[in-house]
Amino acid sequence: MDTLPKQVKIVEVGPRDGLQHEANALDVSTRVEFINRLSKTGLRAIEVGSFVRADRIPQMVDTGQVYQAIEKSPKISYPVLVPNIQGLDAAISVGVTEIAVFCSASEAFSQKNINCSIDESLGRVDVLMLRAKAEGIRVRAYLSCIGGCPYQGEVEFESIRKVSESLLSKGCYEISLGDTIGTATPELIANLLDYLSQKMPIEKLALHCHDTYGNAIANIHEGLLKGISVIDSSVAGLGGCPYAEGASGNVETEAVLKLLDGLGIDTGVSLSEITKVGRFISDKLRVKSAF
After folding, report:
1. Which residues are CB-neighbours of 288 under 8 A, at least 6 positions away?
2. How far is CA 197 from the centre of its chain?
3. Catalytic residue among 103, 145, 209, 241
4. How far apart are CA 184 and CA 212, in angstroms?
5. What is the Cβ-side half-sphere exposure of residue 139, based on CA atoms within 13 angstroms?
6. pLDDT tens per residue across all 291 residues of the chain
7. Which of 29, 131, 260, 269 is the most exposed place for a label (fewest CB within 10 A)?
8. In Å, how far are 25, 114, 172, 206 from 142, measured between CA atoms?
């Protein structure tokens, strides 16, 4: 029988996956203030930024400075995204203790996004995992295109399974299943999670939904019913994917909290405080907050 979890962990991705797709790049001090405000809302995980090339994603320049400057709480994890060993070296140099790596379940998206095959991307993860383990760094993985690909269309569940199992076997503690272009439906999410839960513990999976067609909250609700207890979201719905044309922003943290609060699920996160932070960052970016 489908049952809801009693507690859900929110992974706030606004400072990275949110800001990286906003037209206006923010300076270091504003990004630091943004994260410091988020740290006071009850969140337990806040993605700080990514160590990527400035010419590809200029919004993430100086992530090292941001990481060093934020006021870190021992109760909160502050992961950063790293695409390669150079990024990991940079992260290690500023004291990062958790990273995120990424792969795609779509061969076409992998080629377009990171210029390599799925197998080659998993090989890159091997290199990162070896160094991360040696440094005592925890590793989370993002898996993109679980609900469809902008280049090849449908993505087979078998491909999602194979890549997820590979990432878990390499030592990633969790796989964040990303509906990169927001085309997933509740039925697809339910069927996918039923399929994956026969192959791996549902506790190892999280959901990362985009709201392109307005299905994100319904998809998350279906995920909750199937045992998902970790949800990625972005305050004020900031961001999308810079390499997936037409993808709208991430699902709003505010909307996720409204859903969870309404279902009586504990998150430890204050909706009123998150809403204030959403208004703050929307004002800085000069975008309209829905809350």
Report:
1. 282
2. 20
3. 241
4. 10
5. 25
6. 468 999 999 999 999 999 998 888 999 999 999 999 999 999 999 999 999 988 889 999 999 999 999 999 999 999 999 999 999 999 999 999 999 999 999 999 999 888 899 999 999 999 999 999 999 999 999 999 999 999 999 999 999 999 999 999 999 999 999 999 999 999 999 999 999 999 999 999 999 999 988 999 999 999 999 999 999 999 999 975 444 454 467 999 999 999 999 999 999 999 999 999 999 999 998 755 555
7. 29
8. 23, 14, 10, 9
Q: How many CB atoms lie within 10 A of CB 100?
A: 23
Q: Which two tokens stand for residue 80?
A: 């950063």
In angstroms, the CA 232 to CA 45 distance is 9
Joined together, the tokens standing for residue 9 give: 């962990």
Number of H helices, E strands in the chain: 10, 9
* Catalytic residue flag (residue 116): no
- What are 96's two structure tokens? 């990062």
Which residue carries 């399929």 as its tokens? 195
Q: Measured between alpha carbons, how far apart are the two ends of the chain, in Å?
A: 35
Q: Please say whether the dihedral angle defined by the alpha carbons of residues 189, 191, 196 and 197, taken in this order, is positive or negative.
A: positive
| Structure-block tokens of residue 226 | 């199937």
Rg (CA), the chain: 17
**Burial of 245 per CB tally in 10 Å (0-12, 13-18, 19+):** exposed
Cα of 101 vs its chain's centroid, Å: 10
Say if CB 73 and CB 114 are below 8 A apart: no
49/70 Cα distance (integer angstroms): 12
DSSP 56-120: T-GGGTTHHHHHHHS---TTSB--EE--SHHHHHHHHHTT--EEEEEEES-HHHHHHHHSS-HHH
